[in-house]
Amino acid sequence: MKTVYDEMYAADGSVRESYRNYANWLQVIPDDVIARKREAADLAFHRAGITFAVYGEANSQERLIPFDIIPRIIPTREWQHLSDGLRQRVKALNAFLHDIYHDQEILKAGLIPAGQVLRNSQFRPEMVGVDVPEQIYAHIAGIDLVRADTGNQTGEYFVLEDNLRTPSGVSYMLENRKMVMRLFPDLFVRQKIAPVEHYPDLLLSNLRSVAPAGIVDPTVVILTPGQYNSAYFEHAFLAQQMGIELVDGYDLFVKNKTVFMRTTEGPRRVDVIYRRVDDDYLDPQAFRKDSMLGVPGLFSAYKAGNVTLTNAVGTGIADDKAIYVHVPEMIRFYCGEEPILSNVPTWELRKPEDLAYVLAHLPELVVKEVHGSGGYGMLIGPTASVDEIRLFRDKISADPANYIAQPTLALSTCPTFVESGVAPRHIDLRPYVLSGREITMVPGGLTRVALKEGSLVVNSSQGGGTKDTWVLEGER
């Protein structure tokens, strides 16, 4: 049986130093008080419209993402290690994206099979030779981290996946902090917790820093697919927090390879677009001709250097799970350093020897589609039925290159308030890394929690919830 690392309690049952103040407070707070506070939080989230929708559901309704009021706490030294590793990783990913759309040196060196990149559906041939400001492609990256006990009771962090297309969830990070401060202000008096509320200012500064050359006071907008998108709340929230316009495709037009926004005072030039629309739907003249979400001519303006798109077109190749396995080699190649944060050990099923091993050990492993997301298109072997394993075996055999496999990590747990009281539940962490002239981030990120007992799936679309994430200042 695998040992599970508990964020709050050491193996001998003692409370870890970073949780000591919180544990003392939790001991004297009755469960019924916590329950009432949780109900107050749910009501406040409903009133604020902090909901999401799930694609593909019949009569899909807006849902509330469950919020757990017990925070995840990270000491300063631990966060410093994570932030160093995140900066290194995102730097290498941006270098990789610039390289594959220009000289392709990493492919020529044979470190990544060229076919894995050039024949990947996320690779955009239209981007070859296109220069982008500061050579930054992934301006906003959400890097998913998990923590597992590797046998020494220290709980090592691993990168589970890189989200570089349109990473979501930062609005919940901000709203969770606001909610905990509102419900339990006394907790923030007991210890010094690093702030996260300046993220919108940091994001806006980052976006302005990558405006086209010569633009002194850039106009920045958020491009949304519309109110029926599952993350629409976040689009509107970030626009409001940054004091910029939230637009859809109909609000923008292109003239002389320049993007303009329709306003009551006439057309206004747009310099930076934080787009929450996928590549395929950005411009019906360049990509999907049936798209009603994008802006005709947008890609031509982008190639001409008259507007910056964040994240850049074509970033999806770098967060594809088939490319994920090569990130440590990217770090060595582009940074000349050893990776600070490790990948989860991964089998590539395009390799015959890996395929044979995985097919022989399916009940023990996690298998994922290389393009899958949101917890879909995956098999968790230890919890799967015989029929589910048989069906997945057939899928893998039919198209091995479409899958990777990983060991079933015993993800760390954090105390969580559930129906039966306070109980451990598995968690992950998504910090948000901003790349512009500098690489910056706020301390912490979005902690997602699997609310079902024993579950390892933290995605909100599959019943997961979220927690506030505290980075303690001055706590070693």
TrEMBL record:
SUPFAM superfamilies: Glutathione synthetase ATP-binding domain-like (SSF56059). Transmembrane segments: none annotated. InterPro entries: ATP-dep_Glu-Cys_Ligase-2 (IPR051680), CP_ATPgrasp_2 (IPR025841), UCP005522 (IPR016450). Residues 71-450 form the Circularly permuted ATP-grasp type domain. Pfam families: CP_ATPgrasp_2. This is Circularly permuted ATP-grasp type 2 domain-containing protein. It comes from Ferrovum myxofaciens.
